[in-house]
Amino acid sequence: MVSSNPLFRGTWTAKKxxxxxxxxxxxxxxxxxxxxxxxxxxxxxxxxxxxxxNQLLTVLGTVLxxxxxxxxxxxxxxxxxxxxxxxxxxxxxxxxxxxxxxxVPVDRTGKGTxxxxxxxxxxxxxxxxxNLVLAYAxxxxxxxxxxxxxxxxxxxxxxxxxxxxxxxxKGPDSEKLPLWHDDDEHDHRPVDTPATELGRETSPSSxxxxxxxxxxxxxxxxxxxxxxxxxxxxxPETTLFDYIxxxxxxxxxxxxxxxxxxxxxxxRTKRKAYADVVESHIPLEIILVLSNYxxxxxxxxxxxxxxxxxxxxxxxxxxxxxSNLERICNTPLPFAxxxxxxxxxxxxxxxxxxxIYNAFGYVTIxxxxxxxxxxxxxxxxxxxxxNPFNYDLNDLDLDHFCITIQRELxxxxxxxxxxxxxxxxxxxxxxxxxxxxxxxxxxxDNDSVYRLPNETGVEPGLASLRRTLVxxxxxxxxxxxK
Length: 482
Prior knowledge:
There is one protein chain. The protein has helices at 14-17, 22-45, 55-103, 119-144, 156-159, 240-243, 246-262, 282-299, 305-330, 335-360, 364-384, 398-413, 421-424, 440-446, 462-479. By secondary structure, it is mainly alpha-helical. The protein has a domain at 425-479. α3 (55-103) runs antiparallel to α9 (305-330), α4 packs antiparallel against α12 and α10 (335-360) packs antiparallel against α11. It starts with 13 loop residues before the first helix and ends with a helix. It is a multi-pass membrane protein. InterPro entries: YneE/VCCN1/2-like. Keywords: Cell membrane, Ion transport, Membrane, Transmembrane, Transmembrane helix, Transport. One of its GO terms (molecular function) is chloride channel activity.
C-alpha cells in the first residue's frame, strides 16, 4: 500500500514511479501529442488548414467527462468497500478472540466431559482456537489474491494440527479432507527430499524475507512440513514491460507465433467428469472448525447463552465479509463498458487537435498532451483500483492487516484473566481521587465502612461514599477547566 506522498517522501526510486499511472498511459499520451504536432506542422509548412468546428468538442466533452467520473467513482467505491470489509474482519477477529480467551473457562469442574482436562490443556485449547482466528484472516488474504492451498509460510504453521483424513491421522487420498485438497500437483516435494524446519523453499525466488531483513513469519510457530512452503508475499517481478507497455505487444506476437509453431493436432478424448485439481474454500473450512468448537463449548456448558450468541454473531460477520470480498474481487466492470468507454475517449482525443487548433495554434500540442494525460489517467486509475487485493502499489496492504490482527490477538492472549480481587486492593489504586487520595488498601484495611477523610460530623457508610463521589466530580470539573 502506498504511503502518503510516495514520490516526495524518502528516497525516490523507480518502484515509486509505478505508484502512478504514468508508466501505463505515456504511450497513449505520446501518440495523441504526435497527432497534435502533425496537425500544427501540416498547417504551418503545407499551408493546409486542418481545423474543424469545435461543436463536437463541447457536446462530447461533457458526456465523456461524466462517464469517466462515474467510472472512477464506482472503482473507488469498490476500493472503499474492500477496506471496510477488512475493518470488519479486524473487528470481528478481535471480538471473537476476546470472547474465547476470557469467557471460555479454564477451571471446568463439573462441566461434564470437559471436566477431565487439565488447566494447561484448556489454555492450549483456547490459544489454538485464537490462532485459528488469525489463520482465517491470512487465508482470506491468499484467497483474494488467487493463491490456492494452505502451504504458505504464514498460514500452514497456524493450521497444521487440523485433521487431514476422514478416518484417523493417515489414510488414502480419497479420504483426505477438503482443507488439504489444495493446489497444483507438480508442487509436491519429492519423496527423498527431507522437510525443513519451516518447510520453506530454499530457492532464490523465495520472497519470505524482505529486502530490509524484516521477516514477520519468524513470530509464527516453527512446524516441519512435508512440502516446501510458499512465500507469504509473492508479488510478480518487475520487468521492462511494466515501464514500456509498447513491448507487451511484441511479447504477445512472439508468444502467439511460438504457440502456433508448437501446436499439434490433438486427438479428441472423452471429457472427464471432474477436474484433476479439487480446490477447497480455506476460509470456510476454518470457520467450520471454529463453529464446531463453539457448539462443543455450548454442549458442555462452557459458554453462557449471551456470550455464545456473541461468538456466533462474530463468526457470521466473518463469513458474510468473505462473501462480500469475493463479490468485489470477482465482479469486474463489464468488458463491453470498458472497451466502449476507452474507444470513445480515443476518438475524442484523436479529433481534439483538429478542433482546438484554430483557437490555440502551437499551444495545441501541450494542450492535447495535458488533456490526454488528464482523461486517460483517470480512466487508468479506475481500472487499477477496481480490484484492490493484489500486489499493486495502490492496492490495499493485506499483509499489514494480517500482521495487525496477529499483534492484537497476541495482546489479548497476553492477559492471564486473573481474579479482579488479586489486583484491585493494592497501594497503587486510588479509586476516589481527587476527592479522596487514599489507596484501596488503606480504605479496606482500616474499616469495612467508608468514612470521609478529615471530616467530622459526617455519617459514615453509603451516604459518605456518595458525598465523596459528588465532590470528586466537582473537583475534576474545576481542575480541568482553564
